[in-house]
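Quick one: structure for this chain?
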Amino acid sequence: MALRAVAGSMARRQLKTPANLCFNPFVISASNHRHRSVAYPLSNSPSGFRFSIRAIQETTTAPITPMKEDSTEQPQSSPNWKVKMLYDGDCPLCMREVNMLKERNKDYNAINFVDISSDDYSPEDNLGLDYETAMGKIHAIMSDGTIVTNVEAFRKLYEAVGMGWIYAVTKYEPVATIADAVYGVWAKYRLQVTGRPPLEEVLETRKKKAEICDDNKSCRM
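Got it. Here's what it folds into:
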């Protein structure tokens, strides 16, 4: 009977434990007023340990603003370029290859891209290569001032961005001659193939525009 009485007394004490909680909260305010904490101290637990529950109430930390991505177009050319590519920015098929090379060039910074269709294009800055000459076939200028054309120009450009293996076979005959002949056909008819007027008409339109425009930067073809 005595053992049952002791066990019953202990059970009743455990059931009363929640009632022993001291709900006299006190507020802790940090000196920088960033947040407020409310602490609820508890009386001794049956195991003899003392602990408290802390609840964060008012969080006033400044919100994190996501960094805005810089939309400014990064320059595609490096001051230490190995080869300069003169390309026709008005040629849709050409631009597919140009954009691919620009993407590769981000890791190499070896190519200086120059759009000959731009109103700002200057033959004086490109060894005297005028718009008409550059439109006839692809031209590339090496850093030492050497001008390369046709398939050799593509080979130098691809080598500059780690893809020289694609055109490596064009170094040797008779592949070199055949490749240049095929490219020559493409260069001759590329305007018609891409739905553009003949070169003579393009040149005439560009000439008239230059005569009419007072400010070239405000005029576009």
